[in-house]
Write a structure and sequence with these properties.
274 residues
């Protein structure tokens, strides 16, 4: 078979990752995007027949065909994660066999993955994320469901968007729900972004209760010192009495007749409490 100049260009691709930017991964649910990129790449280098089975060797000695087939397999292996490579690799299989083997691993659990993604879409909440990040998460899940032939209508996606918001967006949520005609996902996202900006401006506004000239602050600053002076006076009076200060109770309890005989009566008349 005569060599095709366009097909020979495929051997000039030394790094497949510069042409196919996605790495196929189970958890990323990116099989459909990866598949589209890989098919497009093989189409551009005229080796698509090695994937769909339309290109076959003339015989077991068709060295150019086996050489191209090995090249496409290297491309494919170079875009897989290590766990996926181990589950796909098989000695002696041609590219068509490897291609179908990978497809079966992703298609066989198609319904189960769609159910899981639908649950994620229904239960995703904004939490501490920004409106932009929250909307991007919902849109990514919706796109993955579309790749699994489980298309999410735009109106349904808007309802999921509103259901996952917290109470600070209650006002704008009511506006969106009753807007006629019902907004698209991108219109609802734009309204939420504007409301988020408004809320941030309100949070930055200074609080009036922090003003040092408020009546509450003045009341505290004038009453507290008076109370302190009153308490100090009581404490001084109590200390005087506890240490022998003259009062009727201490005088009666401590009077001694013998001690009285040692002093003239005039002394006690001058010091007796009234």
């Amino acid at each position: 078979m005569e060599a095709n100049p366009l097909r020979e260009r495929a051997f000039g691709v030394t790094n497949i990752k510069t042409h196919i930017l996605l790495i196929l991964h189970f958890d990323d649910h990116n099989y459909d995007a990866w598949r589209e990129l890989f098919l497009t790449h093989c189409l551009a280098f005229v080796v698509l027949g090695h994937l769909d089975g339309t290109s076959l060797p003339e015989d077991v000695n068709d060295a150019p065909w086996f050489k191209r087939d090995g090249l496409v397999k290297l491309w494919q292996y170079g875009t897989l994660t290590q766990p996926l490579f181990h589950s796909t690799f098989k000695t002696g299989g041609n590219e068509r066999y490897i291609w179908v083997r990978i497809e079966n691993q992703f298609r066989i659990n198609k319904e189960a993955r769609a159910i899981q993604l639908d649950h994620d879409l229904r239960t995703t909440e904004i939490g501490d994320r920004s409106v932009h990040d929250y909307c991007q998460t919902l849109k990514s899940i919706s796109d993955l469901l579309s790749n699994l032939d489980a298309f999410v209508p735009d109106r349904t996606l808007v309802m999921y968007l509103l259901n996952g918001l917290n109470e600070k967006f209650d006002n704008i949520t009511n506006v969106i729900k009753h807007k006629e005609p019902f907004p698209t996902f991108y219109d609802a996202k734009s309204m939420l972004l504007n409301d988020e900006t408004r809320l941030k401006r309100c949070q930055k506004a200074p609080a009036t209760t922090d003003n040092g000239s408020s009546s509450t602050v003045l009341t505290v600053s004038t009453e507290k010192p008076q109370q302190q002076r009153f308490n100090r006076g009581n404490r001084k009076q109590n200390r005087g009495r506890g240490r022998g200060g003259f009062n009727q109770r201490s005088w009666n309890n401590n009077w001694n007749p013998q001690w009285n005989q040692q002093w003239p009566l005039s002394y006690f008349q001058g010091h007796m409490p009234q």
